[in-house]
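Project channel, design review

CF: Before we commit to the Dillenia turbinata constructs, I'd like one complete example in the thread so the newer folks can see what an input/output pair looks like. Taking Potassium transporter.
RD: sounds good, go ahead.
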Amino acid sequence: MGEEAKCIEIEAVHEVKHEEQNQIRKSFRKNDLTNNDSFYLESNKIISNSNWSTNSCQGLDWGTTLKLAFQSIGIVYGDLGTSPLYVLPGVFPSGVQNTDDILGVLSLIIYSLTSILIIKYVFIVLSANDNGDGGTFALYSLLCRYAKVSFIPNQQPEDKEVSNYKIDVSNNRVLRATAVKSFLENSYYAKHILLFMTILGTSMIIGDGILTPCISVLSAVGGLKEATSSLNDNVIMWISVVILILLFQVQRFGTDKVGYSFAPILTLWFFFIGGIGLYNFVVHDPTVIKALNPWYIVQYFKRSKKDAWISLGGCVLCLTGAEALYADLGHFNVLSIQISTCALVFSSIILSYVGQASYLRNHPMDSANAFYRAVPKPMYWPMFVVAVLAAIIASQSLISASFSIVQQSTALGCFPRVKVVHTSSKYAGQVYVPEVNTLLMLACVGVTLGFKDTNQIGHAYGIAVISVFTLTSAFLILVMIMIWKANIFLVMLYALTIGALEILYFSSVLYKFPHGGYLPVAMSAFLVSVMYVWNYGYRKNYLYELQNKVPVVKLKEIASNPKVHRLPGLALFYTELVEGISPIFTHYISNIPALHSILVFITIKWLPIGKVPPEERFLFRRVEPYELAIFRCVVRYGYTDGRQEQGSFEQILVDNLKEFMKTDLLTSRRLESQRISTEVDVLDEVVSNGNDKVEKEIKFLDQQTLDGGITYLMGESEVVSSKGSSLFKRFVIDYAYGWLKRCVRQPDEVFKVPRRKLMKVGMVYE
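CF: and here is what came back for Potassium transporter:
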């Protein structure tokens, strides 16, 4: 009986061994190599490993979604929810001349909110998210993944294998989609226009983040003048400044804590404005329900003509904050935004406007302060307190959006390096950017002190808001045609309805350019200049390294040179290139003829996606022969990913390197794999020899990290214009980009490299 059991055990071991051999054969065939240079064809044998697992691709349960929906009320809708404070005063600053005009304006507000807020943003734009992330850069990254429109030539075939990289593209082969894609890929000017539109949209959203706190807080605090006439505009202004400074000081606590703190207050605000609006509708003039008939819009334009067109600049303010639904999407998810918008926000805002319109039908000269005049006297002080709190919260939506979009643009090389703090361990995408927070605070205080008046700020605000709408629609139409491959009639319907409405609004707000409308244009021009200079310098730096990269043959010569000493330890040499070696490496060797026993070239690469699953983050490559102990590692991040602390990053990197060593040594012998395809005994010998080498190499790695530790080698390049460059190029590169590069955070600060382990190598790039 014992002999029989022993035979069964031997057979089982033999079956397992035979299955293992089959897997190795498959691995050999799959990883069959060519004789091409390894650093120039990184797609042939790069292996990704990780010991992590991720749940980032799984959907959220209903409980979490409802929590996010509640939390989003405190973050996303403050600006949109407080717009009733200043919309009708902006449309009728000097009183209502014809009470029927109120019906036309109310009808405009209702159908603008329905078409742009609900149809466009809630049900169309939110669907064009980039794996849960929104904003102008999310749309741009979608286009970059589908068409080769990026200016940085660092794309790799492996990028498409990242699970989040894939785009759900319609299978319909539509000629116009192919034609548009081909045009964008082959037109240098089209690529520049796309990049400019992206940067402009980003600048306008940051401009919104400056103007939103100013107009919201000034409008709410201005209600004090209804209670006491002793307060003048200067007192209101200084109270607003104090509130704004306090608001920006709480941003460091993060969206998670701020959202839960603000959500109950803003929920109460929506119940207040909805309830008071319903009360005014019943008490004053229920006939305003006629505004549901859009014919009153036509009559309003026939009657008022140019004045009606100018008033559109005030009507558009009812949409302020709609762009935050998309820009803040990374803090929440699509369903949570849709639930909170449709269940509470939309109905409350509509009721508020209907109630104010009913009140103004009986009190047409109270339009300059319609919101507070329409509040019943017993409710005035409770409403004022909630309004001030809501106005403070209103600023949060665009402030959070500014943080998100700066994080995205920084990762994609379109914004100077800044510190990005991930404030929540539970929800990815919730970030805080200290430098941007400080600049927004200073800008808000400056605008409040400079303008003092909500009407002028409203003129500026309108241009910023409608510019973002128009740019989003332009990108959305490209997504509809190229990625969704929507029916051309649906695309035309969108362009001729929502697109035409936005252009009409845009023409109106331009009329107010001399009366404050110049402010967002000036701010955007400054931000666009900074972002474009940074992106231009970043591209030139990358292209210089690409054109002057060191071939792998030269690297082998250097590593094999007996005059180059090999020191104990593991060295991580950071480089921007995903192909070839940075010229800084040879500059380093010419000054310090020594290399560490194990050398890994690290490239931190940002993909045009929101998140990269941790198990797909590392790609490794080896420079043969094995005795050189030189590796290439590409570490891939999405533009909303947070980086680990350097200690944990080191450990994860070493663990992944060990996994690569195990796999690489067993799949590298092409000649053996061809010879042993049917010879089991020879296969056993090859596997055994390979395992021995793996153990020795891993022991060598452990010994080197123990004896010499880990050293970081980073290049610090100074980009200067070449001789014969134009005056403009010399100014941009030598002064503007050079100044920005010196002022912002350095790469070792961004990557959190320990200073005691860091060695920098300087070089001039001409």
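RD: helpful, thanks. Strands lie at 421-422, 431-432, 565-574, 594-606, 618-623, 630-637, 710-719, 758-765.
CF: The chain has 28 helices and eight strands.
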